[in-house]
Amino acid sequence: MAEHKHGEMNTEDQEKTFEGFVRYTIWGIVVSIGILLFLAIFNS
Predict the structure, then answer these.
(1) Which tens digit of pLDDT belongs to each residue from 1-44?
(2) Strand extents, DSSP E, the chain
(3) From residue 42, how far is each of 31, 37, 38 by CA, in Å?
(4) Rounded to whole angstroms, what are the CA distances from 3 to 6, 8, 10, 12?
């Protein structure tokens, strides 16, 4: 088994995946808040 050297792993794919996850999470929160505001305003 190869020796692992700390700090030498290529993490570009993991970073891109995490950025995508954060982006879609933020968009999901914004859309949810927008829907709740719409329902609160027009459901009275």
Answers:
(1) 678 788 788 889 999 999 999 999 999 999 999 999 999 999 86
(2) none
(3) 16, 9, 6
(4) 10, 11, 15, 21
| Nearest CA among 40, 43, 44 for reference residue 32 | 40
Of how many residues is the chain composed?
A: 44
Could you give the CA distance from residue 29 to residue 35 in angstroms, rounded to a whole number? 10
Average model confidence (pLDDT) across the chain: 92
Q: How far apart are CA 1 and CA 38, in angstroms?
A: 58
